[in-house]
Structures
1.
Amino acid sequence: MKIAILTSGGDSAGMNAVVRAVVKAGILKGCETWVVREGYEGLVRGNAEYMDNLKTQGLATTEPPSASPLQEATPSFLNSLRFGDGHLLRDGTGDYVGGMTLKGRYIVRVGWDDVRGWFAEGGTLIGTARSKAFRTVEGRLAAAHNLVIEGIDALVVCGGDGSLTGADVFRAEWPKLIAELLSQSKITEAQALAHSHLKIVGLVGSIDNDMSMTDLTIGAPTALHRICEAIDNINSTAFSHSRAFVLEVMGRHCGWLALLAGVAGGADFIFIPERPPKGKPWEDEMCAAIQDAIGKRKTIVIVAEGAHDLDLNPIRAEYVKDVLTDRLGLDTRVTTLGHTQRGGRPCAFDRILPTLQGVEAVAALLESTPETPSYMIGIQENKITRVPLMEAVEMTRAVAQAVSEKDFEKAMSLRDPEFVESLDGFVATATLSKEKLLPKDQRMRIALVHMGAPAGGMNAATRAAVRYCIRQGHTPLAINNGFRGLLDDNIVELSWLGVDSWMPRGGSELGTNRTLPSVDLGSVAAKFQEFNIQALMMIGGFEAFNALLILEEGRKHYPAFHIPMVHLPATISNNVPMTEYSLGSDTSLNALVDACDAIKQSASASRNRVFVVETQGGKCGYIATMGALATGACLVYTPEVGMNLDTLRRDVKFLKTRYSLDVKGRSEGRLVIRNEAASSVYTTEVITNMFKEEGGSLFDARSASLGHTLQGGIPSPIDRARAVRLSLKCMAFIERHHALLHAQPLKSRHATGESAAVITIQSSSIEWVPVRDMLKHADMVNRRGKHAWWEGVKELVEALVGRPQMIAMR
Ligand code: ATP
């Protein structure tokens, strides 16, 4: 199959990773891979101008002129190694040099090495455009002609809903276009027969996250990073001067960026198109909400660019500023983030998601038949999905339609559950309303404790829990310094404003350690009684899971533990059994990506250096493996798979072959990621020395240890937003089980096994798992789950660097 990929509509971070993944996955499946420059416009223009140029220079050829000499005499993987155009695309020199370059050439064959290093670049290196011509039948006829000339019959389109609509129109029209081309004698009967069906797959590249039927679009997480960085920066100046800031963010039809930035940035009020403020006039509602929190030194209001009131009158940031200044007397400034939101290096998620989706897109193309619908590749929680493209586009359109008809309930119902839950989460944590307090007999004293090593999002989860508690009338109690702190009576009541600035804080505000309640279970039970703790939420990693097991087991002897108890997994190691995601793991991956980008740059400057990077993670290889996927590392060593002399010998062979195939003078630095516990014999130092010795004149080796840098820093927006969402689910769980418990007679109250549970993400859903059921899925010796959802990722990492092929070469 010949597969072409194009990027269309507004650019977004992660589009280059899509191109890289599609090209590499395509080649691995034996396909020819092409890129179309400048979106649909390039498809319409094709290569006619370029071919004319060649003819006038007497160079007419159908082969790319800069093809590598390796291509003729070598097996097929090598045939696909490079076509020499990748660096022209990457360097941006293509359009400026005539004749043998990309000038006038829009459909370009690319190989394996042509997309090397594209990961870390923002925007799209193959260009994007908004094409008027493609909206016309004539334009699409030219596009079909250009594809048939090149023999291409499969297209991957990465863009927003407009681009995907265009893709579907194109596919639906394809048979008619082919018939028309045949009737005009522009193609032969044989060509018409060979190209009777066009296979199309869509990937959503859009910073707005405005597509229905997928939780996330490519580029949205990076845009959210940019916005949260801005909010975090503004927070400090706002606090210093006691100011209010109104931030305008992108999102014409979709409020996702404004909403998630509001949640993750700890804003006070947001305006989004799907849910205008209900108050009439809305100015009263906003002022009341902000006044409730007065006493704090900063106020942040976020306005989506498409925000409006109930009558669809636009709400502008400047006007919001005037209202805050005139009515509340706040010293207010406006910041419009504009295009800074689009740009910059993709965050970890925008490298992993497009890679997994790009691989899935190629699989979908290969399985496509004239009877199957065109698919859009999406994601639901942690599962890459295929959904009918047109259904997703229609649902997306329906949201805009509902908004334009002022049917905001319908607009919200058409957004995915995460969106709705995030909005509930924002409301629950941003505004202090005393109207909805629970009846006194339903109020609880809820203790919150951090356990194990610090992880990004622990403080955000605690802040959300505290604020929810206060809104409901519960008493939030912080147990400082874990169970050791409890035994020392280090327990305090937290307040609404006391946790205000916790959102962007890394580490653990409560203090955390590895002491388990078994240190003195009887005294722990006594303290539960003394402080009248009626529910417990533990935020942490394997220790917290272990602690919950001990407390649940302790119910046999201590009535004080017959209360609802939950564990919210938070650990950079992501080693809690049964959950695919722990708070902190995204922050950690981003820290790893940042460090590795810098290390790779240094390695590349030396042209031929291999860096062996050591990561934390205990006996769990999650961070190493996903980090390798996110940085394009060429090898990864994990405790699960281990290392031995045979693998090392093969890896040395792979590296030698790899470096010997590099174009002279254009070698790049390469990364090898090794989990700290991958082997007690083949340490980072040993393998670095081995690579150094074996590399000879081909490559050199160095090592770097990332150590505790992976724990710290500012939590990523995804960790913060998930912390809020999961934390509120924990609170709802506690309330539910408290009610069940209190329905029993006081004397014989007995908590069920279900009331001591861990909140987990499993594939596409969030599941509560009673802690005792977790036990059979836990490897208690190695402190990890028995099965890891990411087991196959190591193979993918190695496939995407061509390790198997290069080892097989002689
Ligand atoms: P963004 O979300 O960044 O705006 P988008 O993909 O929605 O991205 P659009 O400008 O709507 O951006 O669409 C990109 C291109 O897709 C258009 O310039 C046009 O070439 C093509 N396209 C959009 N809608 C159609 C359609 N109905 N028929 C044919 N082509 C279309």
2.
Amino acid sequence: MARKKIALIGSGMIGGTLAHLAGLKELGDIVLFDIADGIPQGKGLDIAQSSPVEGFNASLTGASDYAAIEGADVCIVTAGVARKPGMSRDDLLGINLKVMEQVGAGIKKYAPNAFVICITNPLDAMVWALQKFSGLPKNMVVGMAGVLDSARFRLFLSEEFKVSVQDVTAFVLGGHGDTMVPLARYSTVAGIPLTDLVKMGWVTKERLEEIIQRTRDGGAEIVGLLKTGSAYYAPAASAIEMAESYLKDKKRVLPCAAYLSGQYGVKDMYVGVPTVIGAGGVERIVEIDLNKAEQEAFDKSVGAVAGLCEACINIAPSLK
Ligand code: APR
């Protein structure tokens, strides 16, 4: 059986890390794409030269022509610019929206059967626009945010409780931003919900609230430390987990920005919810019960995402 083909659209910090991880995990042959000619070719060659040492088999190539992604099974999109000082969120939105238009056209032409994972920010609006620009089925286009946000929550909880990260599960819903909704009731240590751990005296409500806030600010904390860029190791690992679930039909239950057509009372928007990812793409949206406070926080988050989509429509009316 021929190897699977993974196209990485955007070969910056996350794109390069994605290529490295996809190689190490032998997920398939990898094509790096970028408008900055030379970068994808250079990174591809560098990572390919690590394969004899690491012992993995994968072809890694770089290109700045969309024809190179032809027939890709998975496309992971990180193309775009990050916010720079003095740039408003709308400026960023406008620039990256144009990038999504180009990327959507490239995928539509050369990889219409791919499973597409978008990482470019502002995530929930960009993945929504990318699906519309590409015209791919809605269950085949998802956004990576929840796996990363949950991973951050899991790490902070494992450090707090001094237990293995493997035994901590966490659920984060809503948009990828300040309004994300980490759910204490559905996050556990070896199956014990955080709400019970509060009762058991493992953590106070106040301390748990601090950890939740640190999770919400997780991206900003890294930007503050790096100063010249944003997180890339954990975002890349998170997207690879989603790609692997699709390629190997693992049917993992993963929180992703998925297209909602009425679930959770939301229509025609991408919002972070639990999904099942398998060979059929997003095979299922898991609808969990939310209590009043959780529903309010979720609605607020949905409102923020809706605002971003409106801003996109103002720039590109064809998205309506
Ligand atoms: N087509 C293809 N590639 C593009 C385009 C385009 N139109 N515009 C920019 N790029 C490329 C840049 O040349 C750069 O190599 O996208 C790459 C982005 O890489 P980085 O700037 O290193 O950004 P990275 O840290 O990888 O983050 C990418 O993911 O998490 C989000 O906010 C983050 O939106 C950002 C994205």
